[in-house]
């Protein structure tokens, strides 16, 4: 089995409504690409620093498929990015990423996400980020988590506040040849503990997975 060689394929995060894991088949990657092609955000507001949704549905779907394979193909124990696919009622509805550099030393993770428009406004965005925060703090021993959202991305900022993040400054990026202001957010272990609202179950976090995360 491929999971014998890539142990991260065994890792599962479960909440009341969601399962977060890596896809086990190409059809699941295709399902995720179809979700993205159906729409991720208002076309008048680009929420991503890399505008991967700007080329229309077909280009967006292809971008998702290529991104997933690239994320796995560049895996590095000291600079990893976990592309969790979010499954709801058996369908791939979005991505909740968790990433870190030299995590064993820094004990800091970052996150990023997207979710299909048909599934927005239902609390799923909060629940899926809560799942990876549980993995980071409760299972991996993180001390800090960071996130970012462009000014005007009210939904993302609201999730950060709801989960206990505090403002952590502003940085600027160039997106589609325009300067954009990004609000930075930081979550401490104490603030995470104080704002926990979701039960999360973690399966498959064995020594082989920890080794792939630089925690052997």
UniProtKB/TrEMBL annotation:
What is the name of the protein in this document? GNAT family N-acetyltransferase
- PROSITE patterns this protein is in? GNAT (PS51186)
Annotated Gene Ontology cellular components are: cytoplasm
The cross-references to Pfam families, in alphabetical order and at most eight, read: Acetyltransf_3 (PF13302)
What SUPFAM superfamilies does the annotation carry?
Answer: Acyl-CoA N-acyltransferases (Nat)
One MF term in the entry's GO annotations? protein N-terminal-serine acetyltransferase activity
All residue ranges annotated as the N-acetyltransferase domain in the record: 43-190
| Entry annotated with the keyword Transferase | yes
Instruction: Give the source species.
Output: Glycomyces albidus
Q: Which InterPro entries match?
A: Acyl_CoA_acyltransferase, GNAT_dom, Ribosomal_N-acetyltransferase
